[in-house]
Prior knowledge:
The protein is α+β, with helices and mostly antiparallel strands.
Amino acid sequence: MFSAAVLGVTAFVASTNPTSASARTRVTSNKSLSNNYNDRNYLSNGRNALYNKAGVLKGAKVVAGKTTLSGLKSKSDAGQSYFRGYRVAKLSNGSYYMKVVSFDKQYRGWIYAGKSNPASNTRNVKGGLTYTSTFKQSSVPSDIAGTTYNFKSDPLTYVQPDWTQYRKGRNKNSTSASKKDALKVTGMGTKTNGRDSNATYYYVEDATTPSANGWVKASNLVKAGQTVVNEDQVKVNYVTSDGQTVSSHTFTNPNYKTQTAGNFLGTSIAGQVATNVPAGYSIPADHSANDSAISAAQYGGQINFTVTKNQANLFSVSPKYSVTVNTKNYSTLPGDPVGQNAVVTSKDGVTEAIGNKLKKLASATATNAKTQDQVYSSTDIQNAVNSAGLNEFYILEYTANTSGRPVSTASATGQPNASGLLGGTNSLGGSSDLSSILGATAFGDSSNILGGLTSGLSSALSGITNAILGGTVNFRVVHVTFQGDKVANNVKLGSTVTLPYSVESTKSFRFNSKLLLGAEVDKAAAGIYLNQRSIDYKSIEKKIGETNAAYKPNDLQNLFVQLAKADLKGGGTDPEGVAFPDSAFSSSTTSIDSLLSQYANGAADSTDGSTTSSN
């Protein structure tokens, strides 16, 4: 039997107690709790005070009033916020009191716990206590379990995560470990008491110093070899929109205890983060994501800050084109040489793919960017175009002026051959020499038009030479000249520049390697171009002022000049005969497949070599 004096039993009832008691109210039992300690953690709810003995007993004194306890329940993560229950007393009036102690031992006493025995279910307690789950363990994901970690700062682990259990805190043996010790995560859990932002903890095992095994906050670990971000620092990773890291910078704040990380970093357009954007990059116009990242920044952690690569040259953005033909404006060059990546010859005699010239334009010194708000004069643009060899150049084109269906596609090789017609990416294979494609009977029996071809060309090429080009292939050379005096002035970096050109063309000429058919001038043009000579050509060559002339392959500039001498350049009014009827631009194509589809339902007529030029 318990002594009434020892238990502080009294016949008097305190008026502030939740239950009135008679003069005979006494303690009928007083037992320690043996339930799992995880089930005996509580927060005070402020409905009842904490006493040195059961509150209805004589001499009971308030240890912590309801106002004090109500303040503790919403206090930031400190030990006195949580209580451990360890004894239960039942009074003769049917009330139960639980004896509790705060985690930091500052408060200890008895508090009303309802009319049901809390020992039978310590999670279901009434009165002045509310059960609190302080920590919940979970399985460890494979990527975490397979990663090696180090302590971020001085080694320190906990027997139980801090402030989740009474009298189970720091593992004092862990301080003997090294920051370089390899740590493996074998356990994982999260605070569930709403404190410390419900931080996640890892249970780590230290093979080098086993005595250091214990719980550590996940943010206090770093992957082995990773740069450490201390508690007074924030690491900012400057990343592109696709997640690639450009550079990182760690900012240290000596006032980290009194200033938030977000205020310390500044804003997405001003402050330390903005000032330290890596060279060659700038802050995107839409900075909402960066605003959110800075607002969420925490000391000891890191954020990603999105940046945009600065434009290096005015022509980093591809130019547009403007061509005036027949008093109408068009936004593509004849034959679409850019799409075909056609071989062109510039005025200086350099022959190369136009794509290479565009690369030179995109790195031209005259239009290199020094600042992101740079403005360029028309002279800057002219100098860039000139240095790239795009101020004047020549293009070889395949043509077919069929009944109302003009075709114009630039040669991908600069020579009259199959690969040039089809383009490198669309080539069907087989011989590249049109002498093999057309054969001696190119203008006669169409059944033999594929003589000498490999099977790779199949019937598709037959469709081209017959249905599209009427059994032969016609060529012209186009002279393209940059109109620098019409280019825009004061162009801002980031703008798309329009390059105005004027164009002129030779008439079409028909190529027949055997030269058995066709007008004399066609034979002469083909002979000159292929550097083929025979006695039969002498009179013709004399007409155009050349004898035994030799030309380099792809020398389109000289070919243009010689065809002009042969009167294959001139005016004309017939819409079918002009070099650039309006529809020639709309039908320019980079794909021979689209040509096939355009002409799949009708045969084409052969030209007579009378195509002319127009400015």
